[in-house]
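Look at one such:
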Amino acid sequence: MLYCGDVLIAAHLGLLGGGRLHYWFPVYEPGHAKYSPGKVLLAEIMKRSEQLGIQVIDFGEGHADYKEAAASETHELAKVVMAWGARGAASMLPLRWEWRFSG
């Protein structure tokens, strides 16, 4: 958690196990957004990672500026969705279309 005086301005909720921090839910007080409290908190976590027992910070899937700025490497993952029968296949058409043309 990151405080400005007595005011909580940023926090993170995730899991730490086996040296891997799953960085799931970073939040910050919108009134302090111009000071980037979420990025300040992440920088502090990274700075103290060794003493916190963190070897890897896993930002999860998706793109965000803070992830790209903080990452030293990326890993491509595959998504697998199975749909059974004709109705299942039909329900998958919009998703398959999105995946195919998302770049």
In short: Residues 2-75 form one domain. The chain has a mean pLDDT of 88. The chain has one domain: 2-75. The CA atoms of residues 67 and 73 lie 10 Å apart.
